[in-house]
Amino acid sequence: KSSAFTGSFSYTWSHALDTCSNACLEPFNALPAAPSLRYQISPLGLGALNYSNADYDIRHSFNANYSYTVPTSYFQNPLMKNAIGGWTFAGIFLFHSGYPLSVVDSGVRSKQGVTNASGLATQTFLADYLGTGYLTCSTPNVACMTASQFATSANQHDFGNIPRNSFRGPNYFDTDLNVRKDFTYRERYKIQVGAYFFNVLNHPNFDNPYNNVASGTFGQILETVSAPTSAYGSFQG
Questions:
Q1: Cys bridge to 85: 72, 76, 137, 157, which one at CB 3.0-4.6 A?
Q2: Can you list the residues of the chain whose pLDDT is less than 50?
Q3: Widest distance between CA atoms in the chain
Q4: Which residues contact 226 (CB under 8 A, 6 or more apart)?
Q5: Hey, what's the torsion of the CAs at 16, 102, 144, 234, to 10 degrees?
Q6: What DSSP element (H or E) covers 81?
Q7: Which residues does 141 contact at the CB level (< 8 Å), separation at least 6?
Q8: CA 7, CA 221: separation in Å to the nearest integer?
Q9: What pLDDT does 79 receive?
C-alpha cells in the first residue's frame, strides 16, 4: 500500500447562552461539586442573573480520529512482512475547554432566615464577586478560588452581582487506541486479533471545583470524572 494513513480533524468555537439549560427539567451537570442551577435566581426577572452561559457552553472543542496500517510492502523479509506488516493502529482524540459553573453562598440564605423555604426549590443566592475578570480552574493541586475573592455572607444584600455560569472548570482530554490485524486462512476465513485501550495515556480528568463559598471545600477540585455519557459530553457520574 502506498498510502496507509487516513484521518479527520475538526475544531469548533461556540458560545451558547440561555436562562435555564435543558428547559429546567433535568440538571445538565448533576455531580455534587457544582450542580447546574435550574430555577430563577433573582426576583427581578430571568434576565437579571439567569441569562448567561449555558451549562453546556464549550468555547473550544477539538476532535480527531486516525487510522494507520503498516504496509506489507515495507518489508522484504517474509517473516517481518507477516509479523509486522498489516497491523492497523487507530484511535481518537477529544479535547474541549472547561464547563461553566456558578459560585453560590448558602450562608446568605441562612442570614435571610429562609433555610426551610418551600416551593419549587430552596432559594439560591449567587455569591458577590469582588474581583475583576472571570476565574478559570486548571489544576487540582491548589484551590482555584478562595472565599476572600467573594463578599462575606454578612456583607451581601442581594441575589448576586454577576450572572450564573460566569466561571470555568478544568479542560477535558482523552485519547483511545485500537490495535488490530486480520489474518486470512485458506481464502475463506478471516480472523482478527487486536485490543482496545481506553484512556491509553491513563490521564485523569477533573470535575469542577466545589462552588459553595460557605463550604470548607470551596474552590477545591476533589474528584475526577469518567468519560462523557451524554450527547453533549456531560459527566453523569
A1: 72
A2: 1-2, 119-121, 231, 235-237
A3: 82
A4: 235, 237
A5: -50
A6: helix 78-83
A7: none
A8: 35
A9: 81
